[in-house]
Write a structure and sequence with these properties.
8-stranded parallel beta sheet, about 475 residues, alpha/beta, binds N-(aminocarbonyl)-beta-alanine, 8-stranded mixed beta sheet, binds zinc ion, 18 strands, about 20% strand
């Protein structure tokens, strides 16, 4: 039994047209001006709605062990929260423990992720590059179908890699055709700034952004891109927040380097006045890199980079913690778990503030939130609407207006960084692998119905400045 979606306006990264779309057996089987339902088919009237490819979140952290606690959404709840926001697939970060072989870490991550109701994949985070890691990287790509890695240039003493490791990881990734995703902040500089602030008794959440100025992000972005260029590796800079970092990416792109940049809605829409909130309220906004001041031009640089195609993708960095968890840092901002919820809000925020705000059109919104991540990370059957593609779709109703709130989102986070934000349009239905997982009002997810998506490597060395 299939589903026929009638008379919606199909929007892909490059096209807009009104059509009927039929789904069966988890795939899109027909697209035509008029389709006759087959026996037993369900029919959905989508007149007046947009039919979008399922949104893909390339940057989330479900049940992440981090800063002495674990992020609040597990794979079931986090995935379901995404479904309510039009997400049909996400890429989590599988974390290597200290001294842990990479394949062992993947085993542990599969055990946690199998309860996801929607499809998922992983970036493999390398936190401890040892003598066997290069060989394990090849195994991760060839045997496990994980074709992207992650390095943290920050979080000294925990996840941070040094320049030698950065060099080795870029070198190997270029050989095996993998993308290296990078958290770009100079972790040494951040650590020193943190110690200096604490020594002056500056302990509140408002000092978190002071300890991580934009120059430390710009410098690390430049360094990561240089190391990638040296080896001809493909780098993808995650959660970019500032003009220094965007300019570094732009310079690399203009040199012909294959590299990508991601930002997140929080960096486009929030500014550092959020840290003025009383009663430790600013802790909800503690994430790294930090929310930036508006007067410095960072927000404008990010928005224009989305319109002029210097940035390639919008993720969320969904990594929620409850207020109770944030209180771990009540007398020391460096101990506040970094991160916030976002997987459920990205599509409506991009539509309201990106499309209706005049920064880009609907096609570009689809490209940033679905097609771009699918192409960059090799999710071959996702990110577009065409016969043979996965039956992952969003029916988006552009009518109506509402406010975002932690009271109505599905994440376990008890505060929302978008509390009270007014948004236009709503996700009227999310269909993942041919099944409705969100009907516009309620979740209809099935625990464990999501599948791990294995990928093939495509980013082999290009224009290396040294011979491998
Ligand atoms: O503050 C953040 N971003 N938390 C999640 C971990 C990371 O750095 O992406
Ligand atoms: Zn990060
Ligand atoms: Zn992250």
């Amino acid at each position: 039994m299939g589903i026929v979606i009638r008379s919606g306006e199909v929007v892909t990264a490059s096209e807009r047209y009104v059509a009927d779309v039929r789904l069966d057996g988890g795939s899109i089987t027909d697209i035509a001006a008029k389709l006759e339902p087959k026996d037993g088919d369900e029919t959905i009237d989508a007149a007046g709605q947009y039919v979008l490819p399922g949104f893909i979140d390339p940057h989330v952290h479900m049940e992440l062990p981090f800063m002495g606690t674990v992020s609040a959404d597990d794979f079931e709840i986090g995935g379901a929260s995404g479904a309510a926001g039009g997400v049909t697939c996400y890429i989590d970060f599988c974390m290597q423990g200290k001294g842990e072989p990479l394949p062992k870490a993947i085993e542990g991550w599969h055990a946690k992720a199998k309860k996801s109701a929607i499809d998922y994949s992983y970036h493999m985070a390398i936190t401890d590059f040892g003598p066997n890691t290069a060989a394990e990287m090849r195994e991760v790509v060839e045997k496990h179908g994980i074709t992207s890695f992650k390095i943290f240039m920050a979080y000294k003493g925990a996840l941070m890699v040094d320049d030698g490791q950065l060099y080795e990881i870029m070198r190997e990734a270029a050989k095996i055709g993998a993308v290296v995703t990078v958290h770009a902040e100079n972790g040494e500089a951040v650590w020193h700034l943190q110690q200096e602030l604490l020594a002056k008794n500056c302990t509140g959440p408002e000092f978190h952004p002071v300890s991580r100025p934009s120059i430390v992000e710009g410098e690390a972005t430049e360094r990561a891109l240089a190391m990638a260029r040296l080896h001809g590796a493909t780098a993808y800079i995650v959660h970019m927040t500032c003009k220094e970092s965007v300019q570094a990416l732009q310079r690399a792109k203009l040199l012909g380097q294959r590299c990508y940049g991601e930002t997140c809605p929080q960096y486009l829409l929030l500014d550092d006045t959020v840290f003025d909130k009383p009663d430790f309220g600013g802790s909800a906004y503690v994430m790294s890199p930090p929310i930036r001041p508006r007067h410095m031009g960072h927000h404008a640089a990010l928005w224009s980079s989305l319109s002029n195609r210097m940035l390639d993708s919008v993720g969320t960095d969904h990594c929620p913690f409850t207020h109770e968890q944030k209180k771990m840092g009540v007398s020391d901002f460096t101990k506040i778990p970094n991160g916030a919820a976002g997987i459920e809000d990205r599509l409506v925020l991009l539509y309201t503030y990106g499309v209706l705000g005049g920064h880009f059109d609907l096609n570009r919104m689809v490209e940033l939130g679905s097609t771009g991540p699918a192409r960059i990370f090799g999710l071959a059957k996702k990110g577009s609407i065409g016969v043979g593609m996965d039956a992952d779709l969003v029916l988006f109703d552009p009518k109506g207006e509402r406010s975002l709130s932690a009271k109505t989102h599905h994440s376990k986070a008890d505060r929302s960084v978008y509390e009270g934000f007014s948004v236009r349009g709503r996700v009227a239905r999310t269909i993942a692998a041919g099944r409705t997982v969100w009907d516009g009002q309620n979740l209809t997810t099935t625990r464990g119905a999501g599948r791990f998506v294995a990928r093939k490597p495509t980013h082999f060395a290009q224009h290396a400045e040294v011979k491998p």
